[in-house]
Automatic annotation (TrEMBL), chain A:
<dbReference type="InterPro" id="IPR000883">
    <property type="entry name" value="Cyt_C_Oxase_1"/>
</dbReference>
<feature type="transmembrane region" description="Helical">
    <location>
        <begin position="344"/>
        <end position="368"/>
    </location>
</feature>
<keyword id="KW-0813">Transport</keyword>
<keyword id="KW-0472">Membrane</keyword>
<keyword id="KW-0249">Electron transport</keyword>
From TrEMBL, chain B:
<protein>
    <submittedName>
        <fullName>Cytochrome c oxidase subunit IVB</fullName>
    </submittedName>
</protein>
<keyword id="KW-0812">Transmembrane</keyword>
<dbReference type="Pfam" id="PF03626">
    <property type="entry name" value="COX4_pro"/>
</dbReference>
<keyword id="KW-0472">Membrane</keyword>
<dbReference type="InterPro" id="IPR005171">
    <property type="entry name" value="Cyt_c_oxidase_su4_prok"/>
</dbReference>
Automatic annotation (TrEMBL), chain C:
<dbReference type="InterPro" id="IPR024791">
    <property type="entry name" value="Cyt_c/ubiquinol_Oxase_su3"/>
</dbReference>
<dbReference type="Pfam" id="PF00510">
    <property type="entry name" value="COX3"/>
</dbReference>
<feature type="domain" description="Heme-copper oxidase subunit III family profile">
    <location>
        <begin position="1"/>
        <end position="206"/>
    </location>
</feature>
<keyword id="KW-1133">Transmembrane helix</keyword>
<keyword id="KW-0472">Membrane</keyword>
TrEMBL record, chain D:
<protein>
    <recommendedName>
        <fullName>Cytochrome c oxidase subunit 2</fullName>
        <ecNumber>7.1.1.9</ecNumber>
    </recommendedName>
</protein>
<dbReference type="InterPro" id="IPR009056">
    <property type="entry name" value="Cyt_c-like_dom"/>
</dbReference>
<keyword id="KW-0479">Metal-binding</keyword>
<dbReference type="InterPro" id="IPR036257">
    <property type="entry name" value="Cyt_c_oxidase_su2_TM_sf"/>
</dbReference>
<dbReference type="Pfam" id="PF00034">
    <property type="entry name" value="Cytochrom_C"/>
</dbReference>
């Protein structure tokens, strides 16, 4: 895919990626594995839509269907959307703030591998006695009663990948707090960096409740604890609270980086400064803040009582205000601009009406008494696919086109990109618009089949056709990726021509040490400022050229995660009695993990230096990958 | 990152001054510790003395809160220089912690 | 940064824990972790409070009847004192007095280990009374909350010990100073959590 | 009063519009065709909020379309550099204030309705004769079927809820196992059926179900509860008060013995000396105990077999022979396991079907 791949042998490339601590390569790892999980999740979505295409279909059995929706939701949220967004954060954010790398390169790699092995572990459940089947929300009474190991796969897998995500979040926060280039004040940070910052803060504070809940789940199922065991005094509502205290911020973890990507796109392709930058920043922070105070809107029908319902209803509605501020500022950004409809911009433009449609149904659901009707019906399914697919997935597709040149040094085809867009966009509205009405017509969600006597046949069939369109769009994208990589036409620093922020002032892909000299930032949209001042380089420097200190690559993160992965299998089976090997596996796995952690802390790893001479050599040869 | 540690050797006067400052600070810490022990004593005595629960609960919670403030601000230097972001995130964490606890004590059992 | 760089008290910076970029990063990152830990413990506390005294019908144990305050008082005093001794250790770290720092850390570790021993004794005692982990929702929540704190103590102790052993010969430098500092922060945080445990679990438990 | 009626007209207009849009859901189950006060309130909220949301969407769309039509590069020229506007405090104020106003419009009815629909204070109000003035039904959700107990009447039925029209009916909901959710879309929103606590709310049934094409309202389980969650349907018969009282009386009476040889053989099989179905399924309505299986007293009157299959002997026999085939994960043993491992003969199945279809309290 990149020039490195062609120069090195296949094995060496793999090893390179397994040991890398370079944020740009880790970004590629996130993108590829997130992409594969997206395809798996999408395939599961297709199976759902096939099953529901007609009344009384028996394509999937009841049990299998529940496994599929559970894995679809879990995979898409935890293993596809979030990691792909982490890929962009990794690839772009350090460049945007003019940093040499993230704050903790080693932990960055560890975070990825934990996510990766957690995801693999979760998906292996398909082949090892059944996937989780209690919905992605995994409500406790059903989860405790679920037979087989599916739920244990869910709890352990998400715990591992959750740790990975938490590490990534801390890493980005520290990077943004400490590693900004001179002059890059908080109020000069590009919006994508800002949204990365707030989303990471949400990760930091939202994942612990999930982890605790998952621990309870593991203890209840494996060690006979009684957190949720009603007859022993336990309470299943505790799970619901812990899950949603995490779950609602989680949806903003997804949408905020998406907002960030679109903010960049609107500015670049309208050739105009973001309208109301300050308002956009504060709206982002406000959304993050309110995001923690509304979780019970998922629990209106639980019976929390009218006071709680009313409070949470009002709190939820308030979020429409900062979100609206963002929408209108984007509209005013393109207003009076000079809009080029390149593929990323098409997505951004399509995002606005789609997301607003999804957002306003969210506000309708926030009306608690109305939600008694809407809750757990297809109206909800329509709402969240409108915000997620119409917001997050469109952002992912847009970001893929926008940042592909920066990550791989070559441009995806605009023509195929437009084909993908139209198929995906039309398919998306076809699939989900009609689901609002299915919900209002009384169709509950999570039903594996429905009777022909309820009047839902036609709309379901239409919805399934839409999904097919989306699949075609995705397949065209895959073709696009393959063709682009084969052609491999190299591009310069600023392939879109109107880049405004620091990542467009560096080679595509950037050298492994990023900026040879740390840039000096003179204002918001620093590259644009330099361009307007006639500075062809796009930046001025804050320091003379000198030696650069770089961290060494390391296989240890991979091994630590592998150990956790192995140990999880032991944990899964060691209480079964008939599997004496399981305890050994558990111990070996933990041994690998702790052993390699020990090794890491005992062996000083001080990195290496790139000398000034080498940098000069690099600059002359235009060699970008440093080898 | 290559140039971030230049070694600065302090003059004797400077050195003596910081040393004295530290020693003073340490005495402050000792006082803090004494207060914490004292607060703990009050809390335990109140409970063993068996006052009404309505009186005890708010007071022991208050005492705990004071102790935590002491730990954070004196032992952990949260008010010190360069702790702005630290304090911000700790407060966010406490905020989330607070609403979590509030929710689970109020709307789990109806 | 050069790991072999030798320092004297005079050349030792005023804030060695944040004098290097690595140090600064670790410092902020660790505090962020503590913010996350705050939420973690809040979830555990919240669950404990929701499940306090809840069990199968006819459960014989309740918080008011179970807890033994004198033991808890002793544990509290020990842990509070260990917090002070770790402050002493940091005091000497900043003065670049390695030996004194190691000594105070040693005392901290001893106190911590005593605390842990008492906690194990306490759990053991309750289990012998018949208050087992799987007994009731209350017991599960109690052991999980207090046990998680205990696990943190254990981790803190191991961390201190590992640092002391690893650096015994090397002395203080800019590479390990942040590590010592963070370990002591961690120790204070453990103390903070304990303050809430003895207040919310034990004191408020005993009054019912 | 007049004003109220006018408001209703507007709503009626919007209703037709929406129903048209929705391609007419079935009136047995659509929330768009409310048949009771609760659903009507919720429907009104739906209409109100839809209007507000449409307004939002229209405003956004207008700005949006104008922007992308007016400022495309083909019009502005390749090299044109637009003015780099920073923002506008006045605009920020407008698009903060206007949404707040819109939200306030929604907030007032939201809060009012939240408390109104949760108001169960009159549930325990008693009339002079010591009986409460309103009907209360205790609903228990069990793995894939519903039990309805009428505590004051001392009767229990399953799968088909019978209620009087034009009065408030209160419901106590609890689950016997997994969490479920109780939902009759055309009558009112759902309420969860939790394993650990009783939830209470009320519904009103304004229309007699006999007016519907299918003769019953459809009810659903709305919370994933296992493989057969999709099939955990129930039906609702709303009848006028008089008919309801008759039904109650009939339920309280001793069940009439089976008529006809075949049915009598079926009764035998059903009883303790046969397959012992009776140890899980009561056949008398006059019980208050919670059954392991659904109460069969009204089986012959039902609209569906197993809550969702068409009500005929064929389906019934299939179901008895192999319940797992029709509701995977349900707790009913298949007939063979009750019969010492032998499949039931066709004749035995016929007998059981004849017996069960004969169980009726309606004439
Ligand atoms: C990216 C993901 C994402 C996003 C951004 C949102 C955004 C919002 N969501 Fe959504 N939501 C989900 C993902 C998301 N949601 C998921 C996955 C579920 C289901 C989980 C499950 O059960 O499996 C869910 C469920 C869900 C529920 C629970 C429903 C139920 O189960 O009963 C509710 C209820 O209040 C809700 C509300 C909202 C609101 C008010 C917003 C707001 O943030 C939207 C704000 C945006 C706008 C309003 C549009 C722009 C604003 C303007 C143009 C200004 C003017 C507007 C007005 C005045 C209205 N959501
Ligand atoms: C990020 C989140 C996300 C995304 C992107 C999607 C995307 C899609 N979702 Fe999903 N969905 C959820 C999150 C998401 N969903 C969640 C959380 C739930 C709730 C689960 C629960 O109830 O617990 C849910 C539930 C859900 C349901 C309801 C199930 C039910 O309640 O019974 C449906 C039904 O239509 C559905 C459909 C779709 C479709 C058609 C897409 C499409 O947009 C998908 C488009 C992608 C493709 C079409 C890719 C296809 C790929 C190929 C064809 C190539 C395959 C080839 C190879 C493998 C090489 N989803
Ligand atoms: Cu939400």
């Amino acid at each position: 895919m990149s020039s490195i791949a062609q120069k090195k042998g296949f094995g060496a490339t793999i090893w390179d990626f397994m040991t890398t601590v370079d944020h740009k390569k880790i970004a590629i790892l996130y993108l590829i594995s997130g992409g594969i999980f997206f395809l798996i999740g999408g395939l599961e979505a297709m199976l759902i839509r096939v099953q529901l295409a007609k009344a009384g279909n028996d394509f999937l059995s009841a049990g299998t269907y529940n496994e599929i929706i559970t894995m679809h939701g879990t995979t898409m949220i935890f293993l596809a959307a979030m990691p792909i967004l982490l890929a962009f954060m990794n690839a772009i954010m350090p460049l945007q703030i003019g940093a040499r790398d993230v704050a903790f390169p080693f932990l960055n790699s560890l975070g990825f591998w934990l996510f990766f092995f957690g995801g693999i572990f979760l998906n292996l459940s398909w082949f090892m006695g059944g996937a989780p089947d209690a919905g992605w929300t995994n409500y406790a009474s059903l989860a405790l009663a679920s037979e087989g190991k599916g739920i244990d796969f869910y709890s352990l897998g998400l715990t591992i990948s959750g740790f990975g995500t938490l590490i990534a979040g801390i890493n980005f926060l520290v990077t943004i707090i400490n590693m900004r280039a001179p002059g890059m004040t908080y109020m000069r940070m590009p919006l994508f960096t800002w949204t990365t910052f707030v989303a990471s803060a949400l990760i930091l504070l939202a994942f612990p409740p999930l982890t605790v809940g998952l621990f309870f789940m593991v203890f209840d199922r494996m060690f006979d604890a009684n957190f949720f065991a009603v007859e022993m005094g336990g309470n299943t509502i505790i799970w619901e609270h812990l899950f949603w205290i995490f779950g609602h911020p989680e949806v903003y973890i997804l949408i905020l980086p998406a907002f960030g990507i679109f903010s960049e796109i609107f500015a670049i392709f309208s050739r105009k400064r973001l309208f109301g930058y300050t308002a956009l920043v504060f709206a982002t922070i406000l959304i993050g803040f309110y995001g923690f105070m509304v979780w019970a809107h998922h629990m209106f029908t639980v019976g929390l009582g009218p006071t709680a319902n009313a409070v949470f209803a009002l709190a939820t509605m308030i979020i429409a205000v900062p979100t609206g501020i963002k929408i209108f500022n984007w509209l005013l950004t393109i207003w009076g601009g000079n809009i080029s409809f390149s593929v990323p911009m098409i997505y951004a433009v399509a995002f606005i009406p789609s997301f607003v449609a999804g957002g306003v149904t969210g506000v309708m659901q926030a009306i608690a008494p109305l939600d008694y009707q809407l809750h757990d019906s297809y109206f909800i399914v329509a709402h969240f696919h409108y915000v997620i697919v119409g917001g997050v997935v469109l952002a992912i597709l847009a970001g893929t086109h926008l940042y592909w040149p920066k990550m791989f040094g070559t441009m995806l085809s605009e023509k195929l990109g437009k084909w993908t867009f139209w198929f995906f966009f039309i398919g998306f509205h076809l699939t989900f618009f009609i689901q609002h009405f299915l919900g209002l017509m009384g169709m509950p969600r999570r039903v594996y089949t429905f009777g022909a006597d309820q009047g839902w046949d036609l709309f379901n069939a239409i919805s399934s056709v839409g999904a097919l369109f989306m699949a075609i769009g995705v397949i065209i994208l895959l073709v696009n990726v393959v063709l682009t990589s084969i052609k491999n036409e190299r591009v310069g620093n600023d392939p879109w021509g109107d880049g405004r922020t620091l990542e467009w002032a560096i080679a595509s892909p950037p050298p492994f040490y990023n900026f040879a000299q740390t840039p000096l930032v003179r204002g918001l949209d620093s590259v644009w400022i330099e361009k307007m001042d006639g500075n062809k380089k796009g930046m001025i420097f804050a320091e003379p050229l000198g030696d650069i200190h770089m961290p060494n690559g390391s296989i240890i993160p991979f091994v630590i995660s592998l150990g956790m992965f192995i140990a999880s299998f032991g944990a899964l089976y060691f209480l079964d009695g008939d599997k004496p090997w399981a305890l050994a596996v558990l111990i070996i796995g933990l041994g690998i993990t702790f052993g390699s952690m020990l090794l890491r802390s005992l062996k000083d790893d001080l990195g290496f230096h790139i000398t000034k001479a080498e940098l000069l050599e690099d600059a002359k040869g235009g060699n970008t990958d440093g080898h | 990152m290559a140039h971030d540690t230049h070694i600065h050797v302090r003059s004797q006067a400077e050195f003596e001054y910081t040393k004295k400052k530290r020693a003073e600070e340490m005495r402050g810490h000792l006082a803090t510790f004494a207060i914490m022990i004292f607060l703990t004593l009050i809390a335990f005595t109140m409970v063993t003395a068996g006052f009404s629960a309505y009186l005890i609960v708010p007071i022991v919670l208050l005492l705990a809160a004071i102790q935590v403030v002491l730990q954070l601000y004196y032992f952990m230097h949260m008010s010190g220089k360069g702790h702005g972001m630290v304090a911000f995130f700790m407060f966010c964490g406490m905020f989330v912690a607070f609403i979590t606890i509030l929710a689970l004590v109020t709307i789990v059992w109806w | 940064m050069d790991i072999n760089q030798k320092y004297t008290p005079q050349s030792w910076p005023e804030h060695p824990e944040t004098a290097t970029m690595e140090g600064k990063n670790k410092f902020i990152g660790f505090w962020l972790l503590l913010a996350a830990e705050t939420v973690t413990f809040a979830s555990l506390f919240a669950t404990y409070l929701a499940l306090k005294d809840k069990g199968p019908s006819g459960m014989e144990f309740s918080a008011a009847g179970l807890y033994e305050l004198p033991l808890v008082f002793a544990m509290t005093m020990i842990l509070l004192t260990s917090s002070l001794t770790s402050v002493y250790a940091m005091y000497h770290m900043k003065n670049h007095n390695f030996k004194a720092m190691q000594a105070w850390l040693g005392i901290t570790v001893l106190l911590g280990a005593t605390f842990l021993g008492l906690e194990i004794y306490e759990f053991n005692h309750y289990v012998h009374l018949g208050f087992g982990y799987t007994n009731s929702a209350f017991s599960s929540a109690f052991y999980t909350l207090v046990g998680t704190h205990g696990a943190h103590v254990l981790f803190g102790l191991s961390w201190f010990i590992a640092l002391m052993l690893r650096n015994a010969k090397r002395g203080l430098n800019m590479y390990n100073a942040p590590k010592f500092y963070l370990a002591s922060l961690y120790w204070h945080f453990i103390d903070v959590v304990w303050v809430f445990i003895f207040t919310v679990v034990y004191l408020m438990g005993v009054i019912g | 009063m007049m004003k109220g009626i006018k408001k209703w007209r507007l709503f009626a207009l919007m209703t037709t519009l929406l129903v048209f849009l929705a391609g007419c859901g079935r009136e047995e189950i659509s929330t768009l065709i409310p048949a009771g006060k609760v659903a009507q309130d919720q429907f009104n909220l739906l209409i109100l909020s839809s209007i507000v949301m449409l307004f939002v969407i229209i405003v956004v769309s207008i700005i949006f379309v104008l922007a992308i039509v007016k400022f495309r590069r083909s019009k502005m020229g390749e090299d044109m550099i637009p003015e780099q506007v920073e923002g506008s405090a006045r605009l920020e104020f407008i698009w903060t204030a206007v949404p707040i106003v819109l939200l306030l419009i929604l907030a007032v009815p939201t809060v009012y309705s939240t408390f109104d629909l949760a108001d169960v204070t009159s549930m325990d109000v008693q009339a002079e004769d010591g009986n409460s003035t309103h009907l209360t039904v205790n609903v228990t959700g069990k793995l894939y079927w519903w039990e309805f107990e009428y505590p004051e009447q001392g009767i229990t039925t399953a799968q088909e809820l019978v209620v009087p029209t034009d009065e408030r009916v209160y419901f106590n909901l609890i689950s016997a196992d997994i969490k479920h959710s109780f939902w009759i879309p055309s009558i009112g929103g759902k309420l969860d059926v939790n394993p650990e606590n009783v939830n209470t709310f009320y519904l009103e049934f304004d229309q007699e179900s006999s007016e519907l094409e299918d003769g019953v309202f459809y009810g659903k389980c709305a919370e994933l509860c296992g493989p057969s969650h999709a099939l955990m349907d129930f039906k609702v018969k709303s009848v006028d008060r008089e008919e309801f009282d008759q039904w109650v009386t009939a339920m309280q009476a001793e069940p009439t013995p089976a008529e006809g040889a075949l049915a009598q053989q079926g009764e035998e099989l059903f009883g303790q000396d046969g397959l012992a179905c009776i140890s899980c399924h009561a056949t008398s309505g006059a019980v208050t105990a919670s059954g392991v299986g659904p109460n069969m007293a009204t089986f012959g009157d039902r609209n569906r077999v197993a809550g969702y299959l068409e009500h005929n002997e064929e389906n019934l026999k299939n179901w008895i022979a192999d319940p797992q085939e029709y509701k995977p994960g349900n707790l009913m043993p298949d007939a063979a396991s009750l019969n010492g491992g032998n499949e039931l003969t066709d004749q035995e199945l016929d007998a059981l079907a004849a017996y069960l279809m004969g169980l009726s309290v309606e004439e």
